[in-house]
Automatic annotation (TrEMBL):
The lineage of its organism: Bacteria, Pseudomonadati, Pseudomonadota, Alphaproteobacteria, Hyphomicrobiales. It comes from the Bacteria. CDD domains: DSP (cd14498). Residues 121-169 form the Tyrosine specific protein phosphatases domain. This is Protein phosphatase.
Length: 205
């Protein structure tokens, strides 16, 4: 049975003060992620797409003319990261761990000052999937729990906050996020703790 359909914003503000530039973080679905005017109005310069079944072409300045054999490639006004997770069973749990570090990298990257990197540092960030209900919620919950533990001491705390800010109704909580993605985020949280301890020289790691 399909999940109930509820009206909610194309993108929803979730958190502020992230990364070295104090960026704001949003969650959205496909409609928000492909609305360039909406992204610009919210100062969104970076999009992290969690979905494997959704592709968005942000290329504004093709490097050459596309033809029937070669698709458009070139620069875009949006920095774009594609993760490709499945909304349900099928993705290795380690993909959630990788997604966490890609999201962290998207916030922290410092762009070279060269013509081939026509991006500015900073700006806000959108995490999207097809509906902005499951994959995005799992990843952003993990990220907020690890990055702002004083606000979100547990993963469940982060999920509860995002459900409210994304206007996810209680009758859809059973799949926002899907249980296997929730569990992947829990395991990734434990792995991140181990990685961070090893980075800081813990001899037990």
């Amino acid at each position: 049975m399909d999940a109930p359909v509820h009206d909610r914003p194309a993108i929803s503000p979730i958190a502020e003060g992230l990364g070295p530039h104090g960026s704001a973080l949003y969650i959205g679905g496909s409609e928000g992620a492909r609305d360039l005017g909406l992204l610009r109005r919210h100062g969104i310069t970076t999009v992290v797409n969690c979905a494997i079944n959704l592709d968005i072409n942000y290329v504004e300045t093709p490097s050459d003319e596309p033809d029937v054999e070669r698709l458009a490639a070139g620069f875009a006004g949006i920095r774009y990261y594609k993760l490709g997770m499945i909304d349900g069973e099928g993705s290795p749990e380690t993909m959630m761990l990788g997604a966490y570090y890609i999201l962290d990298g998207a916030l922290r990257q410092s762009m070279p000052k060269r013509p081939t990197y026509p991006f500015r540092d900073g700006g806000n960030l959108l995490v999207n999937c097809r509906g902005g209900r499951s994959r995005s919620v799992a990843l952003v919950s993990l990220f907020l729990h690890k990055q702002q533990p004083e606000l979100y001491p547990t993963l469940d705390d982060a999920v509860a906050a995002i459900r409210e800010r994304r206007q996810l109704m209680q009758d859809e909580w059973f799949e926002t996020p899907k249980p296997m993605l929730y569990e992947a985020a829990r395991k990734a949280s434990a792995w991140i703790d181990l990685i961070e301890r090893a980075r800081h020289g813990d001899p037990q790691c």
